[in-house]
Amino acid sequence: MYCARVTPALGICLLAILFCPIHPAMCYADSGKRPLQPQDLNLLEGLSEVVSVSPDGHSFAFVRYRPHVAGFSTNAHSWREERGDVWVYDGKLATSITNHDATDMSFGSPAWSPNGDALAMTATRGKDTGVAIWDRGKNDVRITWASELQPNSLIWLDDERLIVKCGTFAGISPLAQSSDIASSEWTIARDGHESTASVLESPPRRSKSTIETLVLIDRGKGVIAKIDADGIVWDFETWGLDREHGRLAFWRQMSSGGSAINQAAPKFELLAIDEMGQLIGPFRGVGVSDSSPSPSSSYWSSDGRYLSVLELRRGGTAASWWKAAWLRCTVASGQCIEKTHGVIDGQVDRVIWDSEGRPFFRSGRRSIGNLAVQTPETGWWTFSQDGRVLNLFQELSVVPEHLYIRQDEIIGVAYTRILRINPTTFKSEVVFKVPSDAQAGMRISAFDFDQTGSGAVVSIRHGKDLNGQDHEYLVDLSNRSSREIRMPIRQAKLWAYLPMTHSVVVKAEDRTGTHVWKCSESSKECTIVLETNTFLSEVEEGQVRTIEYSSMSGGALTAVLILPPTYRAGTKYPTIVWVYPGTVFDRDVPTLSINDTNTLNPQLFAAHGYLVLLPSMPRPGISQSGSSSDDPYSDLLNGVMPAVDKAIDMGLADPNRLAVAGHSFGGFGVYGLITQTNRFKAAISISGPADLLSMYGTFDGETRYGSELPDTTSFLVSGQFGMGDRAPWGNVCKYLRNSPIFYIDRVETPLMIVQGDMDYVPIQQGEEFFTALARQGKRAEFVRYWGEGHVLGANAANTTDIWKRIYSWLDEFVKNPGVE
């Protein structure tokens, strides 16, 4: 023990050992490592999850995010987007091409031109925004366009032109937008010479200040066209790109009056943009009422004369049935003619096209809340020559999750194998499968092609492996051979595939820092590309484990434990139960590492001497049949309390020192749990809803000062709460019985409520719960952070402040109750 080294006196050492559960810093190991501290989160750098591989397959671009050491972030969800630096790996070195520190700018969303000569990216400097383009040959970055509009998505039409999707409010987030408007209007109000009136109307109108725009940029000429993009369906997966002719097809939602608004039965129209930024359309014969564009729902013919479209229309005798209509649109006439249609059960979530413009689409998934539920009829479908809907894999026991069309064949990626499929007969053969000597439970977790379509990289991983070890294989699809690439460390994950060099780039974010390697199949070696956050090697990390248990309803569940870094077998620890309803730990166990910028990183509980328990919390009412009739409030105890009892029975958790905490939907879980049980000695609810009835009509701080009606109902009606398609006046009882505020007289647990006034869960939710407790004289504390949104940490100082308060609250009631 560390104490034996610094205090030779045996009596003092034994005293320190006895106090380890109370003062864990006394008992860190001989390695000299220290506990994780809240301020460490502000020192972490991050790397983008997605990289952009160059068309030649030799290089890739990524974003490196600088530490949030000090200052205020205007991004409501991730401060990192404002501290981005674009780096390029050229096969030998990774270097910054934007020099963020010197320019005081932030860059993101890198996208290569089709020929790889240029890299476009978004650029931000305060409230100024623009599009930067890096010329690869000249190694020069210049801002090619900047205006009051925010570029937040880029797509190249050809080697010289790109389309930029633009929002409004000078490139700042809704949180910063509201902050700026409030500050400005309060200044005007105090001056007393101008009115500060702000008017909303119903039916809502789109304000000029919120009109979105598509901007066409030429590398040499700059901006060549701006197009009103009001109502465009922004999911790029629904767009059809024709790089050969420099055109782009997209969908726009329209009301009967021509303005884009939210409707129960919206109408969509199909348009396109040509290489000069001129609009084509809207096309006639497509976009009927109560239809919906599906992902990748349009495809250009090779000569650019026709556009094939898959449109989903409500229809059939069941509510979940859709008519999938295959149409062919002629560009010259602007007319779409239906080729055929068929009735399918469930939603279409992916479409691919063959060279003849025939769609292959995945269906049979129903949307329940924000979840996708697979039905027994889930499969891939297409149309036969005589117009029938064909199920491609009805005889297979495992339906491919993804399909890819390469040359004259279809490649399917299933759970443990890759299939080559004949596009005419749909007969399949296995070209790769998880090796027979692999650990049981290994499955394909990532897949990518090379440019020729003859080779691929496959990543396999065990679903319940806490360390998430990946095994990477290079696969030759032509002869069905595969070769494993040796990984540098167990935690390495596939980040990029560089097919021209038969190598992969892997990334590991663990307790020793963030590391990137290039691993070559030919050399059998991995070379380091980038390292950061290496200071974490001096920090102790709590060990992560899983435990198996049964829910109150008898179902088998898995919970996750984080042990204190000073854990000693036989010791019962004060325990934090971290909850989030709907979470079920099975295949994808979270990393739960100290190398995580999340303000509420649960490793910080463990570092303070607590056992952390993350139980599974299934929603039994969400079924394969599509039912969403469950009540989230009544489901809360089902997975939580048996997990607590299991940890107690194992001798890990102290039954007399339990606390519960959660954020967002987890904050709702905390409110609900403490109205149903008094077993917890303390509770912390962060940014949680408490009163579903009032929340339906309350403006949130993030959008209150805008000029549109805020959407505060989506996750109540169709999201996590599953209130169905009814407003409160259509099902008031369900809103009432699922609102913890109406059971608040039962609360006996001391409660800390934490919320930002710019939270999109309205701060009034916390105000209501705190007020009701205060009126009853019950112990509570309401910590409000001005200028903070749903995820705390916009202000770096608030990250350390919230943890200071959390530790103090838990220590008072849980760790050492009654001890000053």
Main attributes?
single chain; about 800 residues; mainly beta; 8-stranded mixed sheet; 5-stranded antiparallel sheet; 13 helices; about 35% strand
List the helices and strands and how they pair.
Elements: H1 2-6, H2 10-18, H3 38-41, E1 46-47, E2 52-53, E3 60-65, E4 84-89, E5 94-96, H4 100-103, E6 106-112, E7 118-125, E8 128-135, E9 140-147, E10 150-156, E11 161-167, H5 174-191, E12 213-218, E13 222-228, E14 240-242, E15 247-254, E16 267-273, E17 279-280, E18 291-300, E19 306-314, E20 321-330, E21 335-345, E22 350-353, E23 359-368, E24 371-383, E25 389-391, E26 402-406, E27 409-413, E28 417-421, E29 428-433, E30 442-449, E31 455-462, E32 470-476, E33 481-485, E34 493-498, E35 503-510, E36 513-520, E37 526-532, E38 544-550, E39 556-562, E40 573-578, H6 603-607, E41 611-614, H7 636-649, E42 653-663, H8 665-674, E43 682-686, H9 692-695, H10 714-717, H11 732-737, E44 751-756, H12 764-775, E45 780-785, H13 796-815
Parallel strand pairs: 40-41, 40-42, 42-43, 43-44, 44-45
Antiparallel strand pairs: 1-3, 2-3, 3-4, 4-5, 6-7, 7-8, 8-9, 10-11, 11-12, 12-13, 14-15, 15-16, 16-17, 18-19, 19-20, 20-21, 22-23, 23-24, 24-25, 26-27, 27-28, 28-29, 30-31, 31-32, 32-33, 34-35, 35-36, 36-37, 38-39, 39-41
